[in-house]
Amino acid sequence: MTSLAALQALERAHVVPAYARQPVQFVRGEGARLWDADGVEYLDFQTGLAVTSLGHSHPAVVAAIQQQAAQLVHVGNLFYSEPGMRLAERLARSALGGGGKVHFANSGTEANEAALKVARKAKPQGTIVSVHRGFHGRTYGSLSATPQEAKQAPFAPLVPGFVAVAPTAAAVAGAVDAQTAAVILEPVQGESGVWVLDDELLQAARAACDEHGAALIFDEVQCGLGRTGTLWAYEDSGVVPDLMTTAKALGGGLPIGALICSPRYADVFAAGDHGSTFAGGPVPCAAALAVLDVVEDPALLARVRALGERLAEGLAALPGVVDVRGRGLMLACDFADGGAPELVRRALTEQRLVVNATGPATLRLLPPLTIGDEHVDDVLQRLRALL
Ligand SMILES: *Cc1c(COP(=O)(O)O)cnc(C)c1O
């Protein structure tokens, strides 16, 4: 096997330095466990950033991928294949009260691009309202709805017609007018450190969109698919969006995204308006069908809520922790003295624990949804040992 040092040399010579990698080469995964090239075992509470929500190499996902790959890998969107049509049916039935339609993409940012294009086509020249601390992706439309100076500034000028306001009910209500095409929000903001948006904010956005004929878009790329203890995060608030995007965990590790449109927006795109060579391919869709079979189980969702409470209580009791935020198994904690990036590095090397930091003082935990009490107790013990 190629050594870590050799991989690092290859990276230095040949890979654009757009990522800051930790010095570990993972070679195998099973459930909540990962193994590096030396055979050392790790506990994974990061899941590739909310992607491997069923744990690594879940047997149902592996079987679905193997079976579909052996049968047909790609045919494109000029023909039919069953997994994509079946997945669209499942997703449309699962969300927004049913009766909507689905458009496939290959990632979260692409699903959001599709949502923004639907909203703009429905209201030509319309503006898009987003909120601070939001994250919607790195392509130009999604980036234009991601009001973070460090991510946007080097790539200016961005797409025109985007407005960013504070994540409050009053600010969002005040920003929506007759020119607004859409408001885009994460019901639980992930990348900026797990901030649950108030029901009041979501309700105000819904009312403003209704009043002015704008589309309410919920980006559930990270918080959806059972992560917060309901299949879709919006269910907890009772506020139903017009357009919703999903990706990360959908393919069990394979790249896939989807836009779910309520009936009002379901036929805005006509043939030729938007598309993608790979989107809706049979292998990622087969994997996603297997993922849905697992995460739609009410018993799993109830366990996510119970485990989330146990984990949140444990985090709050750790030395130096001043705030615990989140819902279900999408949690973050803040430390009074900062040091989160250093803690993440030490967690990996000293405790063989995979977690990540969303800022100088914030640790984020995104474990597999399939863990048990023993994994929660284990992660708390490892963190306590570090602190
Ligand atoms: C990760 C993320 C995205 C972008 O998804 P990619 O698959 O990386 O393009 C968009 N929105 C949210 C909320 C995310 O967490």
Commentary on this structure:
- With 387 residues, this protein is an alpha/beta fold.
- 37% of the residues lie in helices and 19% in strands.
- The protein is built from 13 helices and 17 strands.
- It has a 7-stranded mixed sheet with strand order 4-12-11-10-7-5-6, with helices on both faces. Strands 1-2-3-15 form a 4-stranded mixed sheet.
- Helix 3 runs antiparallel to helix 10.
- The model has no long low-confidence stretch (mean pLDDT 98).
- The site of pyridoxal-5'-phosphate has 15 residues, from helix 5.
Quick rundown:
This protein folds into 2 domains: 60-295, Type I PLP-dependent aspartate aminotransferase-like (Major domain) (Aspartate Aminotransferase, domain 2), CATH 3.40.640.10; 298-357 and 380-387, Aspartate Aminotransferase, domain 1 (Alpha-Beta Complex), CATH 3.90.1150.10. Helices cover 37% and strands 19% of the residues. It has 13 helices and 17 strands.
Name a few traits of the molecule.
single chain, 387 residues, alpha/beta, Aspartate Aminotransferase, domain 2, Aspartate Aminotransferase, domain 1, 2 domains, 7-stranded mixed β-sheet, 4-stranded mixed β-sheet, 13 helices, 17 strands, globular, binds pyridoxal-5'-phosphate
The biggest sheet amounts to:
7 strands, mixed
Which structural class is indicated by helix and strand composition? alpha/beta
Task: Identify low-pLDDT runs.
Answer: none
Query: Would you tell me the overall average pLDDT?
Result: 98
**DSSP summary, beta strand count:** 17
Number of domains: 2
CATH architecture of the largest domain: 3-Layer(aba) Sandwich
Percent helix, as a range, is 25-40%
Supply the number of helical segments: 13
Order of helices and strands: HEEEHHHEHEHHEHEEEHEEEHHEEHEEEH
Amino-to-carboxy terminus distance: 35 Å
CATH fold name of the largest domain: Aspartate Aminotransferase, domain 2
Query: Strand order, biggest sheet?
Result: 4-12-11-10-7-5-6
CATH class term of the largest domain: Alpha Beta
